[in-house]
Specification:
single chain, 5 helices, 53% helix
Length: 148
Amino acid sequence: MRRSSTYWCSGDYRGQHLGPCECWLLRRRVSGSVFDVTAAAADPVGPGSRPFADATPAQIRAALTPEDADSFDRHWRALMQRATERLDLTEVHEALEAWRQTAMVTSATGVEGYRRMLRTAEERLRSGERASGAVPWRQLMAERGLTD
């Protein structure tokens, strides 16, 4: 596992870390307020709350793909060992927030939709190809009169 600026990367992207937070950013590209979740991963969603905001580790794991569940298990064991040694849960809370994002996206898109999104992202990162209509970040910010 490698530490990015905020979240841990499990390195499951064929051994290639995508850079600070980019692994998780790929998983955070979901908008909307209504998500289908399985009963095993159910997370109450009230007005103004987001899915999985308070999900337990078991609920998070239940919503993941089998391959992500394996990564979650390895990550969880390592985190808990460090937290026990250091008497500090900061890393655990940060990691849970990141995994909640993954669970939310997986739940919202379905397992196959999630895998398809990751394949598309990997291909675009590999080839440098942009999605149709995509613009560079700086251009987007400039068009909105913002600075980055």
